[in-house]
Amino acid sequence: MRRRAAVLLLSAAAGAARAQDGAPAAPPSPPGDSKMHPSEGAAPRKANRLAKESSPYLLQHAHNPVDWWPWGDEAFEHARKTGRPVFLSIGYSTCHWCHVMARESFEDEAVAKLLADTFVCIKVDREERPDVDAVYMAAVQAMTGQGGWPLSAFLTHDRRPFFGGTYFPPEDRYGRPGFPTLIRRIDELWNTRRADVEKSAGQIADHLSRAADPVRGELSADWLAHALVQFEASFDEEHGGFGPAPKFPRAFAVSHLLARHAATGRSDLLAMSVATLRAMARGGIHDHLGGGFHRYSTDAEWLVPHFEKMLYDQATLLAAYADGFAATGDAEFARTARGIAAYVLRDLRDPAGGFRSAENADSEGVEGKFYVWTEAEIRGVLGAEEAADFAALYRVTGDGNFLDEARRVRTGANILHLAKGDDAGAGKAASPAVAAMRGKLLAARSARVRPSLDDKVLADWNGLMIGALARAGVALGEPSWIAEAARAAEFVTARMRKDGILHHRWKAGDLAVPAFLEDHAYLALGLLDLYEATFDPRWLAEAAAEARILAAEFQDADGTFRHSSARGETLFFAPKDLYDGALPSGNSAAALALARAARFTGDGALETASRRCLEAWASDLAERPMAYPMALSAVARHVEPSREIVISGDPEDPAVAALLAEVRRSPRPDAVMILRPAAADRAAALAKFAPFTAGMLPVGGRAAAYVCTDRTCAAPVTSAAELAKLLAR
Question: Which residues lie below 8 Å from residue 460, measured CB to CB, with a gap of 6+?
Fold first, then answer.
């Protein structure tokens, strides 16, 4: 009976949690009405322990009245000595609802005292410690069926969670407990039913450990076809994208569909991809003035975003729009890709060479304030005549379309967007006259209080951007983007290693945390894309090295990949996941990186490591394959014929350029392309990493192309016309 009472009590508290990024069940008090977040202008209080940290997110909380500790043994030892449970709060610097909870609760003196009297409070940046976040997110999802940020978890002294949720409001609402009520209830449980709490923590830990075991099986080409059926069933024919609101871009799913179109010729796959890319490009999720995309759309129409701008979204969307342009030649996709690249290179590039992580959703305590416009503001910048034209094109009205999130009333503010399905309007938006209007508005917007910048550099997200810039640079003929990708690759491979070990985070010269699975996997994929853009053997060597680290240091006996290597911290359980959500999973990315690296190098051990991973997740891939598009891209490389294309000749030879152009004219995402230099020393350097290229010589002194299927090569050809016939066959 006592155990049931504890379960009922915690279940009632769980009602305040919501999915995705912690959006509350009921709207909070209006942002800006209450205390400002310390990063947004409030008078600073006495610093707490977080002031000594480097994380932008932790520094945002360095002047909270909450007695915060950073994650570490010292905090848990203090909890043991004082006999208090641990309150763990996980978020990130650009998380809107993290700021809301900070303003409402962590900046409140009374709540801070209540926390201090009850818990040892630990704050974690989920982007800096994705291993910690993955463990406790899995626990919260298991307990509540939902997850998101801010993540709030309550732990025993041995770090096991016994309850958790996401955002909690500052007062009781609609029969659900507010944060202070929840604190008091947990305090009561801890002090009166400690044995129940400890037992519950043990049961949760046991459940998570059991649930992490996938079921093995044989690889099947049927998964590819089954996934396409699921994509078709969930496709939103009216608005583009897949599934209901909220809608995340999941741009690599679009890239996967485009790759399947290239492999199968199915026009419906191209149509779904094109419709989704157009809908996002014309929607409010797209920053029509500054370029780039916001994190996700709260509605089905891609209109109202959460306004944070993440490096990983820019990377995956840049790649998708480049892939879309390569498949269609659509000028709108090229313009959108150029806008993304311009934003990243202008606003996220770190002077040292890498790319910074994100920009906040909030400025001056209000989400989206930096980005939205009233009709009068536009008129003040453009004048009456131009403003009228601009308003008609970008759907600006006096009432506006941006609601006050607390009162649910129109504010007169507008999220700029183009009309759905208006191809003529999209063409007009590309005109010099409209571009000039956007330039004036962008200049005026730049004078506003800008959202804060998270300036840490992460190896995994930089790996994604390296690959995106390289692919897009080739597709759109932008060599400067390829040069920027190489600059970032130089930074990550040189400046983010210490004693030969890759690290996850760099900030102002400070390295932290040994690299995780995603760091090595995303970086390997990005370096392979960079090799195909530059044909510099160094990047192939670096990519192969990263792939071998994946197999040697992260793969378990069952074939799945751990999130952390032996160098990382050992947590109470090791979560493993294949789901490709806002970011591709580490297991999916590792399987694809190993499969691609095997094609470039001919290394059968890498191919085997990739296959073992996919076989380990067979039950998941068979049941709901559309949830794993990056894993499916790896599956395709095992169950379908491989294609390797080797161009042999002097890189400066126009004949080599002609052969390369022919290959790139009709790109096949499942193929690999290698340039074997004619010079003996450079050819020998390449052969160290791709030994099967050693005998692929120019023919009669002329540049030659070798096209191989499943490592069986056709006779070499020396002209672009012959190569076109060979590729078509």
Answer: 504, 516, 518, 519, 521, 522, 523
C-alpha 247/C-alpha 241 separation (Å) is 7
Cα gap 77→121, rounded to integer Å: 12
Q: Where in the chain do CATH 1.50.10.10 domains reside?
A: 222-366+453-639
Give tens-digit pLDDT for 538-555. 999 999 999 999 999 999
pLDDT at residue 20 above 90? no
Q: Are 496 and 559 in contact (CB under 8 A)?
A: no
Tokens of 708: 């191989």
How many CB atoms are located within 10 Å of the residue 576 CB? 23
Instruction: Between 212 and 182, name the one with better pLDDT.
Output: 182
As a whole number of angstroms, the distance between CA 50 and CA 59 comes to: 6
Please, what CATH class does the domain formed by 643-728 belong to?
A: alpha beta
- CATH 3.40.30.10 intervals, the chain: 2-211
pLDDT of amino acid 21 = 43
Report the predicted TM-score, pTM, of the whole model to 2 decimal places. Answer: 0.92
**Helix count and strand count (H, E) for the chain:** 28, 21
Distance CA 361, CA 370 (A): 9
Tokens of 336: 């959108």
Mean pLDDT (the chain, rounded)? 91
For residue 102, which amino acid is it? A
86-91 vs 120-125, strand pairing mode:
parallel
pLDDT, tens digit (0-9, with 9 covering 90-100), for 491-531: 999 999 999 999 999 999 999 999 999 999 999 999 999 99
For residue 83, count other CB atoms closer than 10 A to its CB: 11
Element (H, E) at 386: helix 384-393
Element (H, E) at 158: none
pLDDT at 3: 33
| Region 527-537 average pLDDT | 97
Distance CA 497, CA 511 (A): 8
Give the integer Cα–Cα distance in Å for 718 and 110.
78
* Amino acid, single-letter form, for residue 578: L
CATH hierarchy code of domain 222-366+453-639: 1.50.10.10
For residue 625, how many C-alpha atoms fall within 13 Å in the half-sphere facing its CB? 26
Q: Given this model, what pLDDT does residue 621 score? A: 97
CATH of domain 2-211: 3.40.30.10
If DSSP states are collapsed to H, E and C, what string results for 555-588? ECCCCCECCCCCCCCCCCCCCCCCCCCCCCCHHH
What residues have CB less than 8 Å from 16, skipping those under 6 apart?
24, 25, 165, 166, 167, 168, 169, 176, 177, 178, 182
Tokens read off for 56 = 């932008």
